[in-house]
Amino acid sequence: MLDQQETLPLWQEKAQLSSLSQLMSLMRPSSLRQYLGSKTLPLCQEHQPKASAGLDHKACYLCHSLLTLAGVVVSCQDITPDQWGELQLLCMQLDRHISTHIRESPQAMHRTRLKDLAAQTYICWQDLLAHCQPQVAPPLAPRLGRGGK
To answer: At the top level of its lineage, which domain of life is listed (predicted)?
Structure first.
């Protein structure tokens, strides 16, 4: 769908989070809109406001669906401390590619809903991060010498 020539190993549980973070940049609404526009609209129609608004709605709907699926993938996994860094990267990708690129508008409630979903997903993933932090070994206590006291 997004012109991916290679298949990603999404069925392998350990590879899911890293593959998902690679796909997060493709889920950016502007990227989806550009992709959908190149496939559906002839060049002369790109300037029509109604066609442009419809394309924006489709891109946001597709991003919403993909983000919902990403949330399902992450929530279905038992996040291990080894995957903590991958989940942290996924949160950063979500913020960088989705949340910051959605411009809300009173005329476009679909954008507000998408931004809300992105915020809810981010909070959920941050909560997972807080509960699966990698175990840090406590600092070694200084050894007391066995002097002749």
So the answer is: Eukaryota
3-state secondary structure of 132: coil
Specify the residue for token string 């979903």: 117
Q: d(Cα 22, Cα 136) in Å, to the nearest integer?
A: 28
Locate 147 and state its tokens.
């002097």
- The one-letter amino acid at 32: L
- Domain segments of the chain: what residues? 25-131
Q: Around 70, how many Cα atoms within 13 Å sit in the side-chain half-sphere?
A: 30
Helix (H, G, I), strand (E, B) or coil at 149: coil
- pLDDT tens-digit series, residues 3-15: 554 554 544 555 6
Cα–Cα distance measured from residue 147 to residue 18, given in angstroms and rounded to the nearest whole number: 53
- Cβ–Cβ < 8 Å for 82, 15: no
